[in-house]
Amino acid sequence: MAVREAKEECQLSSIFDARPGVKIWNEFAGRELLELALKCTRHNSCYRPTLKEVVETLERLRNGPAHVAARKAAEVSIESTAEFLRQELTCPILLEVMTDPVQAEDGFLYERSVIEEHLIRRETSPMTNLPMGTTLIASRLAINMLGHLKSLGIHEP
Q1: Which of 92, 93, 91, 111 is nearest to 101 (CA)?
Q2: Residue ranges of the chain with pLDDT lower than 70?
Q3: What is the predicted pLDDT for the residue at 22?
Q4: How many CA atoms within 13 Å lie on the side-chain side of 114?
Q5: CB-based contact 106:132 (threshold 8 Å)
Q6: What angle do CA 101, 105, 107 make, to 5 degrees?
Q7: Which residues pair with 85 in a beta bridge?
């Protein structure tokens, strides 16, 4: 269905993307944006809106209900990112978010003080129970991820 036909037949919802999580425009805002787009495509420039009118309409739409929905979607995205970071940065021994993550010879990340204490008692991996050396390497990636988690205002050690 063409855009003009959808508008004339009051079938705008048929041209909106209806996939879950994509539809953030309500029909009112969509109709207003469509009206603006159609005005901008008029053949005679005398009947096109001015740049000021376009900007005012877009500002109003940006700050309206669709903007609120988009903001909520962004908040969900931040929350899911934060949850992912928390899971990746949780020490498998301590079961808390690490503050000084290191990578052991088994390839897993641990809180430095906890893995050092473990390796004093046992020379095996806490994850695989296989023999393991005592070399620990600071994980720049995990440290950067911790910084990102802190920048989101979610984790304070």
Answers
A1: 111
A2: 1-29, 64-78, 152-157
A3: 47
A4: 20
A5: yes
A6: 65
A7: none
Q: What's the CA gap between 98 and 104, in Å, rounded?
A: 14
Is-contact 96 87, C-beta < 8 A?
no
Identity (one letter) of the amino acid at 137? I
Going by C-alpha positions, the residue among 128, 130, 101, 132 that lies closest to residue 114 is 101
Crossing angle of helices 65-88 and 51-62, rounded to 10°? 50
- Give the number of C-alpha atoms closer than 13 A to the C-alpha of residue 87, restricted to the C-beta side: 6
- Please state the three-class secondary structure of the chain as a single string: CCHHHHHHCCCHHHCCCCCCCCCCCCHHHHHHHHHHHHHHCCCCHHHCCCHHHHHHHHHHHHCCHHHHHHHHHHHHHHHHHHHHHHHHCECCCCCCECCCEEECCCCCEEEHHHHHHHHHHCCECCCCCCECCCCCEECHHHHHHHHHHHHCCCCCC
CB 99 within 8 A of CB 111: yes
At 65 the pLDDT is 58
Q: How high is the pLDDT of residue 64?
A: 66
